Design the sequence.
């Protein structure tokens, strides 16, 4: 039924679908038949001053919103860069700390091994210096 009305008005189906998407600004997928037909008349007819003013106003509002969004995005990008730099600094510090602790553990292990070796030497010397006396039998 609507397709027939569109043909009577001289519209191709592809034009109507494209215009329907323009009319459906909220993306709901629903436009009343009256709104749709009214929009098609305005689309095919000559532009009026009010229409042009409304379009310019619409474009200016959205341009201002887009500029504001760009400023917000730039600010967020700058903050993200600062956070990334801080995280890299923390990562470098952690890497150095881990490396230092690993080297400290190696040195401590080496010292414990030396201490164990010295303790063994001392124990052996003590055994060598021990004098054993023969036991007396009764």
Sequence:
């Amino acid at each position: 039924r609507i397709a027939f009305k569109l043909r009577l008005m001289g519209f191709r189906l592809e034009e109507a679908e494209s215009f329907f998407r323009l009319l459906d600004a909220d993306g709901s997928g629903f436009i009343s038949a009256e709104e749709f037909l009214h929009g098609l008349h305005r689309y095919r007819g000559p532009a009026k001053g009010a229409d042009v003013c409304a379009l310019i106003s619409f474009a200016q509002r959205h341009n201002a919103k887009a500029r504001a969004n760009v400023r917000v995005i730039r600010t967020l990008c700058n903050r993200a860069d600062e956070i990334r730099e801080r995280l890299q600094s923390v990562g470098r510090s952690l890497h150095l700390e881990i490396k230092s602790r690993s080297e400290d553990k190696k040195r401590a292990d080496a010292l414990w091994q030396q201490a164990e070796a010295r303790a063994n030497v001392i124990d052996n010397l003590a055994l060598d210096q021990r004098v054993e006396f023969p036991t007396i039998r009764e």
Summary: The two ends are 134 Å apart (CA to CA). The chain has a mean pLDDT of 83. The longest helix spans residues 49-129.
